[in-house]
C-alpha cells in the first residue's frame, strides 16, 4: 500500500466564483462541477484542488486555514510571470536560504498558495 496524491478540499460559500478565479487567474481547468452538491474540482498539470460548500456539521463563517498549500514546479520564474498580475501577492519571487526559489499568492477566498522549486 502507498499513498498516491493529495487533493485539498477548500471550503467556500462561493464555489462558482472560486472556480472562475482558478480558471481565469491561475490557469486551472474545471474537471468537475456540481451545483446541487456545492462542489467542484479544478486541476492544472498534476495538481487537483477541490472547492466545496462546507459540510452541514462544520462551523464555518469565513475561509480559514492556518498554513499554506505549497506547490512544487519546475519553472517557477515562468509561473511567476504568468500569475503576478492575476492574483493578490503574498510575497514576490525570491531565493530563500533553505534552497528554494518561490513566491506566494492568495486565491479568491484568501487561501495562500505558494509555488516553488529547488535552486540549482
UniProtKB/TrEMBL annotation:
Superkingdom to which the source organism belongs: Bacteria
Gene3D superfamilies cross-referenced by the UniProt entry: 2,3-Dihydroxybiphenyl 1,2-Dioxygenase, domain 1
Signal peptide start-end: none
Domain VOC: 2-118
Coiled coil regions, renumbered to chain: none
InterPro entries: Glyas_Bleomycin-R_OHBP_Dase, Glyas_Fos-R_dOase_dom, VOC_core
Designated name of the protein: VOC family protein
Species name: Mucilaginibacter angelicae
